[in-house]
């Protein structure tokens, strides 16, 4: 294929995506990603960020990040194993281990590459991975990269998991077997059934891996899903992101010293991609300090999410069965969901629609992420917009 034919091929496919309403137009924010954002000069109450605790724009984090830039500069200068490990990285990893209650931790440049790195550094073609069908794309890619046999189980269906675990074990085909799950599922806000997963893993002698991108900073008084269930000693890989509740960027695995030492010599983004910047790691360490010393931000986030859920439900919306601040408003049909989100935008509320193929057909939803940074007035504005648009489009 020449570059000319490639271009024609791409154009045809892009047009097809646009015709089917599957092309995502990106509107840049003019300013910070806070509780209120500005797009094309329009101010909008922001219900679409993963910035659960409002830390992305926290003054304390900004201050330490600026100081780190003054002292260390803007870049780490190399990959971790050459000379891109600053004392700041070590401090962050020690703090992460303390936060998660493990012997050690390793930080990566993002949650996405953390999953790709950690899964593929431990699992290989002689192994099997039992993976929840709704696990995040980065888990799926990490599993594929490892070349292990991927066995998907129905979402949070423990009978299905047990049957597949038994079959995999009894087949005698695999060296190692891992069960991997999101801690909190981001489309519905449901929490994985970790006690049962751990029990099945123990029964069949398997490893466990929890991606707690949406649980850390949120559940277990901020320490995450594993802590929420009191299972810190039973989960081998506690993976998390530094980009959501922590408000910055990065990913990590917390676990035993041997696991972390292994990841430091075998995981490719650690070996071959430049490390997190001084500002990032310093802000993350500060965020962890804040979370370990007070639950004030979590309390506010839970209060705001209860307020939003209660009022949306009172208006007659179907908000699913979320156990976390993630608040889906289920609209159903794809076009109706997109229309709903567009009308909210016109009313000054930014809440993204999520439709097939991200969620099953007919379960389109507008997803709301209330945070500690929202004021009651902002939430009231959003609730009023929901009422107006819901009545206008015949949803309530
Ligand atoms: N895992 C899950 C469950 C996620 O939701 C995300 C973010 N969408 C990631 C991993 C990737 O994290 P990051 O954005 O930090 O790369």
Automatic annotation (TrEMBL):
UniProt EC number: 2.3.1.29
Co-factor requirement: pyridoxal 5'-phosphate
Acyltransferase is among the record's keywords: yes
Keywords: Acyltransferase, Pyridoxal phosphate, Transferase
Enzyme class: transferase
GO MF term list: glycine C-acetyltransferase activity
Regions annotated as coiled coil: none
Assigned protein family: Belongs to the class-II pyridoxal-phosphate-dependent aminotransferase family.
Quaternary structure (record): Homodimer.
The protein's name in its UniProt record: Glycine C-acetyltransferase
Organism in which the protein naturally occurs: Rossellomorea oryzaecorticis
């Amino acid at each position: 294929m020449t570059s000319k034919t490639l271009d024609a091929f791409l154009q045809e496919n892009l047009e097809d995506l646009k015709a089917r309403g599957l092309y995502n137009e990106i509107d840049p924010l003019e300013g910070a990603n806070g509780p209120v954002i500005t797009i094309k000069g329009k101010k909008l109450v922001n219900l679409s960020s993963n910035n659960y605790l409002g830390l992305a724009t926290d003054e304390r984090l900004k201050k330490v990040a600026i100081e780190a830039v003054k002292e260390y500069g803007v870049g780490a200068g190399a990959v971790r194993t050459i000379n891109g490990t600053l004392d700041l990285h070590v401090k962050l990893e020690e703090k992460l281990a303390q936060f998660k209650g493990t012997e050690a931790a390793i930080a990566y440049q993002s949650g996405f590459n953390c999953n790709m790195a950690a899964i593929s550094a431990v699992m290989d073609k002689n192994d099997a991975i039992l993976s929840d069908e709704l696990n995040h794309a980065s888990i799926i890619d990490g599993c594929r990269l490892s070349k292990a046999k991927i066995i998907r189980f129905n979402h949070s269906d423990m009978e299905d998991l047990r049957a597949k675990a038994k079959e995999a074990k009894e087949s005698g085909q695999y060296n190692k077997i891992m069960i991997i799950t999101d801690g909190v599922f981001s489309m519905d806000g449901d929490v994985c059934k970790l006690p049962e997963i751990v029990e099945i893993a123990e029964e069949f002698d398997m490893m466990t891996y929890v991606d707690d991108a949406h649980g850390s900073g949120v559940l277990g008084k901020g320490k995450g899903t594993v802590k929420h269930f009191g299972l810190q000693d039973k989960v081998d890989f506690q993976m998390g992101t530094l980009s959501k509740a922590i408000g910055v960027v990065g990913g990590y695995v917390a676990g035993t010293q041997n696991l972390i030492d292994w990841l430091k010599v075998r995981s490719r983004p650690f070996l071959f991609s430049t490390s997190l910047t001084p500002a990032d790691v310093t802000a993350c360490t500060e965020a962890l300090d804040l979370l370990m010393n007070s639950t004030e931000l979590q309390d506010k986030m839970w209060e705001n999410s209860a307020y939003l859920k209660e009022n949306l439900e009172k208006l007659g919306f179907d908000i699913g069965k979320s156990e976390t601040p993630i608040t889906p408003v289920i609209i159903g049909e794809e076009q109706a969901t997109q229309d709903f989100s567009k009308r909210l935008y016109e009313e000054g509320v930014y809440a993204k629609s999520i439709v097939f193929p991200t969620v099953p057909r007919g379960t389109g939803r507008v997803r709301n992420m209330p945070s500690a940074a929202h004021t009651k007035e902002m939430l009231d504005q959003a609730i009023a917009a929901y009422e107006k648009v819901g009545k206008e489009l015949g949803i309530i």
